[in-house]
Amino acid sequence: MSETLSAIPDYLHDGTTLRSWLFTTDHKRIGILFALAITVFFFIGGTAISIVRLDLLTPAGDLVSDDTYNRLFTIHGIIMVWFFLIPSIPATLGNFLLPLMIGAEDLAFPRLNLLSWYLYMGGATFTVLTLILGGVDTGWTFYTPYSTMFANGAVLTAAAGVLISGFSSVLTGVNFIATTHALRAPGMTWFRLPLFVWSMYATSLVMVLATPVLAMTLVLVMAERWLGLPIFDPSRGGDPILFQHLFWFYSHPAVYIMILPAMGVVSELIACFARRRLFGYSFMVYALVAIAVIGFFVWGHHMFVSGQSAYANIVFSFLSFMVAVPSAIKVFNWTATLYRGSISFEAPMLYAFGFLGLFTVGGLTGLFLATVPIDIHVTDTYFVVAHFHYIMVGGSVCAYLGGLHFWWPKITGKLYPEAWARFAAILMFFGFNLTFFPQFVMGYLGMPRRYHVYPPEFQIYHVLSTSGAVVLGTAYFLPLAYLLGSLWWGRNAGINPWKAKGLEWQAPSPPPHKNFPVPPHVPDEPYDYHPKEGPLAEAAGDVS
Amino acid sequence: MSDSAYLRPPWKNLERQHQAVTLGIWAFLGSEVLLFAGLFAGYSVYRGLHPAGFLAAGRETSIVFGTVNTAILMTSSLTMAMAGRTAKARLFHAARILLFATFALGLLFLVLKGFEYREDIHKHLIPGPGFPISVEGAALFFSFYWVMTGIHATHVTGGLVAVLRLIVTSRNDTAWLAGSGSQEATALYWHLVDMIWIILYPLLYLAGRTHG
Amino acid sequence: MAREKIPAKSFWKLNRDLVMTWAGLCALLAITCTLAYVPMGRGNLPVSLVIAAIKAALVGAIFMRLSDHNALNRLAASVGPIWIFIMFVLMGSDYFTR
After folding, report:
1. B13 by DSSP, 3-state: which?
2. Which of A8, A320, A420, A448 could form a disulfide with A512 if both were Cys (CB 3.0 to 4.6 A apart)?
């Protein structure tokens, strides 16, 4: 029996030609393809902002010109949002894990999955072209009428890049939705699904419904800029605020595309490393769906000072407070899961703890920003920049790295060096806070965002922030090095090095093409770290 | 019957595969509806802000082309629906003829659109220098006219490609029309393209007709 | 490949509801086109949109067979229109109160 099993090649060795990778329909390979692409973009986007932070060490704009400065922070935003964060967890971990976690052989539409990757690469090509053409200086938000009428830069290619990559999102979302409905293994009912699967489902709803609005908004920008059709031009009756409504209708839900998957990962990590079932599983599910839905109702909080009516401000402020409630429920439930748990501090758990703290700070500051009077004071300052970096980097990137480490043994069949990983996680936590906490302070004190030149009283904060960025950047290179290194020198992982629950841990490490040589056993409840019956339960005194 | 020949990995059951394809297409159609949503919203905002301009501009579109094209698209929806009905009844030859008819009608829609665009250009109905209507907002109407009809025509073209694929693939294996979920998926997409046009028609062709 | 011979009568029976729906759509098209020329002040737009909505509903219910589909597909089909409604209502909270 074992001879037959070991005769099945794992997905990494099942075909070694370039063709077998570029024409693969295996969700695991496609996940790897996405991972490679987003990693490249992460470091390009990181390089851009490193130059910005370097320049900001001094109040004068003495490293690069004003125009270059604007192009640098713009490309940082475009790359990080659309070419790193949005695809990061869904297209890499989601692609890899969704079929495994539900006991399926692949996604519902494997060829569509490959198309998603090619669409992403098509968009990526236009973005690289944008870089070659010297970039664009509108900010990642493309506000009109500057972007449509006055910006001198590669607006069209940048917009085209984002537009094309958006279709990648939509198709991934469609694929995930169909997969979750139709390919669950026998016994895997909806309320036995791991929270990561639920988070992929909720994220997919947002991807499918929000992304097309961005696509059309970019089409309108391109139509005005390229064809000269008046759409947002105020001198011909247009309303620039219409652009902002349409843009943020997508871009606010987009931030939930970036955080919901992270929340899914964190649930998996905390359950495993506290060795406890998630506290309040059903409410965690409802919270995911509630965030996805209510997230569509709050976009106007990006427009409090745009000229939007005061009544709209009230409506959007109230709704923004509402969307914080399910997020808070999740934070409470993760914390409650830790109570009486058997907690260990492997690297993935360190990232999960980092997430808990940093996401909470980011979330609370989001509430400050949702309060109209406060927002009027801190809008377009570094306070906002700090807020969203706490969520997107402190939250999403932390969770992505935590998930990458947690599932690395399953994906590659290798163990990473634990000591280095813990060191990197802790270094990252310090570097992150040193980079971004000073930004809260200087934002509150009035330092505007996107400014190349600033008054000298803010310099101390910028120096702290840039120092932090150096630490943070170093910390990011560590996993790049040791994770890659583990591919050659890492110890072989067994089938379940963490002794985690979840169907993915019943597949070999790494899994073969069709995932499960024997159909997986679906337990009665997810996260049954303390089963109610049997010797483990008796020993723990759990028997009722 | 070897309907299992139409089974594609990872599916083990043909009915499940079809159900998933149908759900997938409905999810995709949801995204398509949201694609046009931004255009509808923009149109509504500007019509509210510039009612006189929109009415003045609306009566310059060609009601003949617009109405005839609406009738053509609705008929193509009929032939598409009939193709699905007959394929399900395993009358595959009739189904293929109906798919041809759908393709032909869709192509006719695009051809007439081309003639209509030519006429519009001849009347200088492109915002910019030479635009004939000076009421504020009229140029905005026509921006939306060109973008809305252009994006819709792109979708019609995509639909034609999909219908053509059905026709070509079923050439040697007509039973494929029932065995695979492609026919139903294409049909649903085609009907949505028709529905979008049904909504566009009053917005672009019926505005301002009561004067002049 | 055998070309199926279908008597015209059973072909008609098979597709009768579809053809009737199409006839209804054409009638509504004629009505909406005619009404566009009837001065109704601000009523012209709502009337034409209501007729368009009825036509769209016919296409959805009968051509797309939504009435036959299971609840899940119907839910999926309704999400798009509901989200457009949300977009309009919340954008309206700005534009109607300026």
Report:
1. coil
2. A8
C50 interfacial to chain B (CB closer than 8 Å) = no
- State pLDDT tens for residues A471-516: 999 999 999 999 999 999 999 999 999 999 999 999 999 999 999 9
How far is A211 from A455, CA to CA, in rounded Å?
A: 39
CB contact under 8 A, B37 and A212: yes
Q: Say if residue C32 is in the same domain as residue C54.
A: yes
- Selected residue of A177, A214, A218 to mutate for chain B interface (largest B Cβ count, 10 A): A177
- Could you tell me the pLDDT band of residue A536, with boundaries at 50, 70 and 90? low
- Chain A residues lying within 8 Å of C74, measured CB to CB: none
**Interface size, chain A vs chain B, as Cβ–Cβ contacts under 8 Å:** 124
Residues C77 and C62 in one domain: no
Residue C1 in any domain: the answer is no
Q: Does C83 touch chain A (CB under 8 A)?
A: yes
Mutate to test the interface with B, among C13, C22, C55, C64 (most CBs of B within 10 A): C64
Residues of A267-302 as b/e, b for ≥16 C-beta within 10 angstroms? bbbbbbbbbbbbbbbebbbebbbbbbbbbbbbbbbb
Q: Which residues of B touch A (CB under 8 A)?
A: 9-10, 16, 19-21, 23-24, 27-28, 30-32, 34-39, 41-42, 45-46, 49-50, 53, 127-128, 136-137, 139-140, 142-144, 146-147, 151
Cα distance from C25 to chain B (closest Cα, Å)?
Answer: 7
Same-domain status, C51 and C22: yes
Look at C87 and A249 and tell me if their CB atoms are within 8 Å.
Answer: yes
Tell me the shortest Cα–Cα distance from A176 to chain C, in angstroms: 14
Residue A124: the pLDDT is: 97
Q: Could you report the per-residue pLDDT of B39-83, keeping only the tens digit for each? A: 999 999 999 999 999 999 999 999 999 999 999 999 999 999 999
- Does C13 lie in the same domain as C60? yes
Answer whether C94 sits within 8 Å of A309, measured CB to CB: yes
The Cβ of residue A364 has, within 10 Å, a number of other Cβ atoms equal to: 15
On whether both C30 and C60 belong to a single domain, the answer is yes
User: Mean pLDDT, to the nearest integer, of A237-257?
Assistant: 97
C56 and C81 co-located in one domain: no
pTM for the whole structure: 0.95
Report how many domains make up chain C.
2
**Whether domain A2-540 has CATH 1.20.210.10:** yes
> What is the tally of helices (H) and strands (E) in chain B?
7, 0
Exposed (0-12), middle (13-18) or buried (19+): which is B154, by Cβ within 10 Å? exposed
- pLDDT tens sequence across A383-442: 999 999 999 999 999 999 999 999 999 999 999 999 999 999 999 999 999 999 999 999
**A108 — contact with chain B (CB < 8 Å)?**
yes
Q: Which domains, and CATH codes, for chain B?
A: 13-205 (1.20.120.80)
Radius of gyration of chain C (CA): 19
Per-residue pLDDT tens digits for B89-129: 999 999 999 999 999 999 999 999 999 999 999 999 999 88
Residue ranges of A 194-213 with Cβ closer than 8 A to chain C:
209, 213
> What residue ranges do the domains of chain A occupy?
2-540
Q: Which residues form the domain of C62?
A: 7-67
Q: Do C23 and C58 fall into the same domain? A: yes
d(CA A214, CA A162): 9
Q: Is A512 helix (H, G, I), strand (E, B) or coil?
A: strand
Distance CA A121, CA B11 (A): 28
CA pair distance A187, A204, nearest whole angstrom: 23
Structure tokens at A272: 């495993």
CB contact under 8 A, A216 and B24: no
CB B141 within 8 A of CB B97: no
Q: Is residue C59 located within the same domain as residue C81? A: no
